[in-house]
Amino acid sequence: MMTKCARLWVAQATVVAVFGLSGTVLLPSSESLAQANPASEGEIESPQEDDDIDSNLVPLEPELTVSPPDLSSTDGTVEQPEHTPGKAFLDTPGAVSADAQGPVYNIPVVIDQTVQSHIHFFNISIRNRFEQWLLRFSRYRPLVENIFAEFNLPSDLVNLSLVESGFNPYAYSRAKATGPWQFMKGTGQLYGLRIDHYVDERRDPIKSTVAAARYLRDLYDLFGAWPLAMAAYNAGEGKVLRALQKAQAESFSEISKTKLIRGETKQYVPRIMAATIIAKNPDQYGFNQDPVPLHQFEEVVVTRPLHFRAIANVTGIPYAELRLLNPELRRDATPPDDSAYHLKVPVGTSAKVVELIDRVPTYKFPPLRAGGQRVKTEAARWYRVRMGDTLEKVSRRFHVPLRTLKALNHLSSPVIKAGELLVITR
Fold this sequence. Notes:
Blueprint: E1 2-4, E2 18-20, E3 44-45, H1 47-51, E4 58-59, E5 87-88, E6 109-110, H2 113-125, H3 127-138, H4 141-150, H5 160-165, E7 171-172, H6 185-190, H7 205-223, H8 226-235, H9 237-247, H10 252-255, H11 263-280, E8 298-302, H12 308-315, H13 319-325, E9 341-345, H14 350-356, E10 381-384, H15 391-398, H16 402-408, E11 421-425
Parallel strand pairs: 4-7
Antiparallel strand pairs: 1-2, 3-10, 5-6, 8-9, 10-11
Helix pairs in contact: 2-11, 4-7, 7-8, 8-9, 8-11
């Protein structure tokens, strides 16, 4: 099967990208898309040395990984929309849950104590942050839903990206997962994404969504139930398969009562359910639903490396818009090894870019080390937190104001943990 992702067409200036979606792809080993063991502790690190990470990336927002409040000591009540189905279990792609007085879901949704804890966390504890995720995702939601529909995936499954990254193309986790779907490098490459010194398609909203859809479809085909498929997206299918085998179980609810999967994975599926409930009822929870510009663009074929700033200087297109539309370009420039790169530009500007593109100077990339690694620069310095470190100590050690450190790393409190990567400078 082939699919055409909707684009605006402008004759001789734009192209419609066609992504190949056919063929069966072998599942990766038990590698998780979202987690891996952190590297050993160290002093200042240049991510370019480690995994060739560029300075555009931002650490994953801490609210995406923190545990929700425990409601077991309270009366268990939580603010909910006026009509919510009390229980709905669905294990087939085409099925939906229906309640005469409630919304319709097409992934399994059950409101129990754990799901209520996550609803309370999103709706009360981190309300402003979750609202930002909803607004950011609304820019991409129609595109993501269309891609999922072409794979016959439940539309509510798109909310998995909310709990992975808040659909931030530049999100980077301690485990080196990247992009809105938080792909690890090996898994991304296995599912056809280009990941090298110049391009990281894990950050491309369209291509990474196609890869995520393929992976989720493979997981469903393997497990036959969406809760298990979602758990495997977090933990890796190998871990979920072993847990099912050891527990002689057949469902996520069964293995979630054992110690065979991590607490994070036990929380992951209820977290998606909670995000889906709110995303399905944003007005009833009082979340801002102001319209935002959709992810729309035209494409221009670029035959040589061009930097965003040079394009902006010649064409007048804001640098920030070029970055927003092309998050997969790691150096803010088109790659030198592609003689026909499809650069995304704002709607209505492709003709102007084609007219002026010859005036844009060719960009010269810094030299690479042997093996394709870039010569180390000071564009971004990272520090791996050691035992006994506090944010104040790190602030004094590197002469970076505490407020700046917190802003760079999206920290709402001074608490840091050993093994975390902190951005020190940009």
